[in-house]
Specification:
single chain, about 700 residues, alpha+beta, 8-stranded antiparallel β-barrel, 8-stranded antiparallel beta barrel, 12 helices, 40 strands, about 15% helix, about 35% strand, elongated
Length: about 700
């Protein structure tokens, strides 16, 4: 392996003092968070290229009371991503790959039907659209940490079953561990070595001789800190088992000594003219985003320019924060679930760095917001859809408005002035309203976002029944069912959950099931065909409705229902359309029949001001083999008019909706290459919309996409 990095380990390896570093205060901070008999916490600080502070407290092993020190190995979880990214960057500098390469160049089995390029740089900064494998496994109800022996090959096998991406590459950033698992396979492909062996040599080149990625969860790791959790908060520690063989996105075991060697190298890179380390701290060239780079966050921290990353796996957690302008790095690791390394790092930084005020700016339109009268407050209540499709509900309790997203707890909105609100406890985000129109959200130092108000939806029983069915994802091999219980409430049966989950109907095409956001997809006839499931880092995972789809043959009434169906003749040579009115117990009140001497079939029914509109197909009347058939009746089932629509081939009526001019009939129309050559002709069937007036006269018709 070509060496690009050369680190003089003895350059500044001794601990030296730094001006303005209050070590006693930092010691007190750490001592206040942990006892000597607790799982450990270790902290290191590098300032101006030198190690200026090291402190470790607590135990690496509770069972044998083994104290941790700067040679104790901790699992730093996602803080390891910077090193996987560094290997990719090195390979690009060696011209063995480019960051613009499509990942299918190396792994052709991934996403073969995706037309857009999925570039290596998209994986590096989480803009690829590749869904996060831990969350995919959670949707399967088989979390990654329960899968004994799970490795990168297993993850790749899961990703190879994915047919599409969560979003177009480069269009947004959604954190995904999957991207870094894929990167390990690209590194193997390019280097010709296993990722474990390649990375082992790589760390030796960095002077990090006690650092390596996990290879076998059963392997003995000398000086390892075991992970501990206090689940009940009662001081009873339990070991959190790590049973997988994953690496690359995390599972890097390292010591404080090694990490501080690396942090010195990063700070001194400009002096050593180390191109690799210098470039690794910058945004990725040509990237659509600048807030995440080579496995590192590039957003400000404590109002200072910073380069940082956190990690958390089971009970292990870690944090690195680099303040490049101040030449200050704070590194924290722990095997203690009750401690969050990021909090410790920020608390230490606050003892070193002067508090810096954030300069916040907003879109200029924030200064021209119209005032709203208090009497109009209730008119702000409702549902608002974000530009990305997330629905926010504004609720009112007494004189306070609340912001509610999904099934999260509502957040109170506090009025600042006029018509400008902010979150209670977080005044940086501002919100304004237009009565019965839109909501505008002003993010600090960003453009404004318009959330469009959408009508409240009160579902009927018919609406609810449309959601009933089994939904299946072939890519994940998992299904869930939606049912309607005896109280006419939608419930979901999820895999490995004994209790049914309530389904909240937000509107016609948006549902909530626990922490799952469900977007409904319908066909041209308004039937539910599939749903897109979003949860955490999994966006728009498609589940196909497996239940046989039917059109709506029933209308609920105050004391029962109106039903339309098809009945066959005794000899089987014809059929007719039957309309019945029934009591709520199913007993018939009256019935009417419609049709001719051939086959007449019913598909659906809708209510009109005068009575009912029946939609179906007929071979008794019309121009072709089958024609679209529409019958209008009064409320007692007496025919007002009937009409057919279609031509020579088969035309069918399936559903209808009321329009300003009459009705829109939705169906299918057939077109063939020949009227006479039955054996050799080709035919296709398209979705067909026919617009008619209230008396059944055709106004227009439109042929849409082909029915698959």
């Amino acid at each position: 392996m070509k060496k690009i990095i050369f680190i003089a380990v003895t350059l500044c390896s001794a601990i030296v003092s730094a001006q303005n570093l209050d070590t006693a205060k930092i010691n007190d901070l750490i001592n206040s968070k942990i006892n000597d008999t607790d799982p450990a916490l270790t902290v290191g600080i590098v300032k101006d290229g030198a190690i200026v502070y090291q402190y470790t407290k607590g135990l690496a092993n509770l069972e044998h009371s083994v104290k941790a020190n700067n040679l104790t190995r901790f699992n730093i979880a996602s803080t390891a991503k910077q090193f996987t990214a560094l290997m990719v960057l090195q390979l690009s500098l060696e011209q063995k790959l480019t960051l613009e390469d499509d990942i299918r160049t190396y792994l052709p089995k991934l996403y073969p039907t995706v037309k857009e390029k999925i570039r290596i740089r998209h994986l590096l900064n989480h803009t690829s659209g590749v869904r996060d494998y831990p969350d995919l496994m959670s949707v399967q109800r088989e979390p990654w940490w329960r899968r004994v022996g799970l490795d990168n090959n297993d993850v790749l096998e899961l990703l190879e079953k994915q047919e599409d991406l969560a979003f177009k590459p480069g269009s947004k950033k959604v954190y995904s561990n999957s991207g870094y698992t894929i990167l390990t396979k690209i590194i193997e492909n390019v280097s010709g070595q296993s990722f474990y062996e390649y990375s082992k040599q790589f760390f030796k080149g960095l002077g990090m001789n006690d650092t390596f990625f996990s290879k076998n969860y059963m392997a003995v790791i000398p000086n390892r800190a075991l992970p501990y959790s206090d689940w009940q908060g009662n001081g009873v520690w339990q070991e959190f088992p790590m049973l997988t063989n994953l690496n690359g996105d995390g599972f890097l075991f390292t010591t404080l000594k090694d990490q501080l060697i690396y942090e010195q190298a990063v700070q001194n890179a400009t002096l050593n003219n180390n191109v690799l380390l210098i470039e690794s701290q910058k945004p990725i060239p040509n990237s659509e985003i600048k807030t995440y780079g080579f496995g590192l966050e590039l957003e400000n921290r404590l109002n200072y320019k910073a380069v940082h990353h956190s990690g958390g796996t089971g009970s292990y957690n870690s944090q690195v924060v680099r303040y490049p302008n101040e030449k200050l790095t704070i590194y924290v690791m722990s095997n203690n679930s009750t401690i969050w390394s990021g909090y410790i790092a920020d608390a230490i930084a606050n003892t070193i760095l002067p508090k810096q005020k954030q300069n916040i700016t907003y879109d200029d339109s924030i200064n021209t917001i119209a005032t709203i009268e208090k009497s109009d407050l209730n008119r702000l209540v409702g549902q608002y859809r974000s530009p990305e499709g997330v629905i926010i509900r504004i609720e009112q309790k007494e004189n306070t408005l609340y912001w509610k997203m999904d099934n999260n707890n509502p957040i109170a909105l506090q009025l600042e002035k006029g018509n400008l609100y902010s979150y209670a406890g977080n005044t940086s985000t501002k919100i304004s309203f237009e009565v019965n129109k839109n909501m505008t959200v002003y993010w600090p130092n960003a453009t404004k976002f318009i959330y469009k108000k959408i009508p409240l939806f009160k579902p009927t029983i018919t609406d609810l029944e449309a959601f009933i069915g089994e939904y299946y994802s072939e890519e994940l091999d998992v299904a869930f069912n939606i049912i309607l219980n005896e109280d006419d409430k939608l419930m979901a049966k999820m895999k490995k959950r004994k209790q049914l989950q309530a389904v909240e109907v937000i509107n016609k095409n948006d549902l909530l099931i626990s922490h799952y956001r469900i977007q409904v997809e319908r066909d041209a006839f308004n039937r539910v065909m599939s749903v897109l499931v979003t949860t955490n880092r999994v966006l728009n995972m498609k589940f196909i409705k497996k239940t046989n789809l039917q059109f709506q043959p029933k209308i609920p009434t105050d004391n029962g229902s109106i039903n339309v169906t098809t009945i066959g003749s005794r000899d089987g040579n014809s059929s007719q359309i039957l309309l019945t009115k029934n009591y709520s117990n199913g007993n018939e009140i009256w019935s009417k029949q419609f049709g001719g001497k051939s086959y007449d079939k019913a598909s659906s029914i809708i209510a009109t001001d005068e009575g009912y509109l029946l939609i179906g197909s007929t071979s008794s009347y019309g121009k072709g083999n089958y024609d679209m058939f529409v019958i209008k009746t009064d409320k007692k089932g007496k025919t007002i008019w009937q009409n057919t629509y279609g031509n020579f081939y088969n035309d069918y009526g399936y559903a209808a909706e009321i329009t300003d001019t009459g009705y829109l009939i939705k169906g299918a129309t057939q077109d063939c290459s020949s009227n006479t050559d039955v054996f050799n002709r080709t035919c296709k069937t398209n979705v067909w919309y026919v617009s008619i007036d209230k008396n059944g006269k055709e106004l227009s018709n439109t042929v849409l996409e082909e029915i698959k």
